[in-house]
Backbone:
C-alpha cells in the first residue's frame, strides 16, 4: 500500500468521491455484519449446501456444463474471501467511528448506519426536541469525519487495489 503525501496533508481531508464511498460502505455495514455473523456460525453448513445443492451447479450462466465439485470449492472460497474483506472493512469503519469526537454525531451515525436504522427511525431515536435537519447534519458530519479517518488509514487505497 503506497501512499503519496503532499505538503500540508498532515490532517487528511476526504474528497467528495471518498465521502460518497464512505456513505456507500456505511450503508452496507449492517448487511456486511449480518453476513459475517452468519458465515462465522454456519461456515461448515454453507460448504455442505454448496456441495449438495444446486447453487454450485452453474456459477456462470454461460457454462454449458458444470463441474459441481469444482464450482462448490470456488463458491466456498469466494464466500471466505468476501468474509475477510468485510471483516477488514468493518474493523476500519469501527475504528473510524470511534474517532468521532462529537458524541451526538457519533450517536447519530451509530443509530443510522452501524445499527442499520432508517433515517426516520434515527430521527425518532435521537433525543426529543432535536430537529430532523439537526440529525441530518450530524449524520453528514459523521460521514465526513469517518471518511477523513478512513483516508488517513489508507482505506481508499486498499479498496482501489482490491476492486
Residues:
Amino acid at each position: 500500500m503506497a501512499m503519496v503525501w503532499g505538503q500540508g496533508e498532515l490532517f487528511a481531508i476526504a474528497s467528495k468521491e471518498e465521502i460518497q464511498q464512505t456513505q456507500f460502505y456505511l450503508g452496507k455495514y449492517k448487511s456486511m455484519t449480518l453476513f459475517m455473523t452468519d458465515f462465522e456460525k454456519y461456515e461448515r453448513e454453507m460448504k455442505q449446501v454448496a456441495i449438495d445443492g444446486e447453487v454450485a451447479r452453474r456459477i456462470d450462466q454461460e457454462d454449458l456444463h458444470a463441474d459441481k465439485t469444482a464450482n462448490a470449492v470456488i463458491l466456498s472460497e469466494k464466500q471466505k474471501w468476501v468474509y475477510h474483506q468485510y471483516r477488514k472493512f468493518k474493523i476500519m469503519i469501527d475504528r473510524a467511528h470511534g474517532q468521532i469526537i462529537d458524541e451526538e454525531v457519533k450517536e447519530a451515525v451509530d443509530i443510522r448506519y452501524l445499527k442499520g436504522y432508517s433515517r426516520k427511525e434515527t430521527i425518532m431515536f435521537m433525543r426529543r426536541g432535536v430537529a430532523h435537519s439537526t440529525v441530518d447534519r450530524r449524520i453528514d458530519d459523521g460521514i465526513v469525519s469517518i471518511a477523513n479517518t478512513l483516508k488517513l488509514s489508507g482505506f481508499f487505497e486498499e479498496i482501489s487495489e482490491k476492486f
Observations:
- Residues 72 and 78 are 10 Å apart (CA to CA).
- The mean pLDDT is 84.
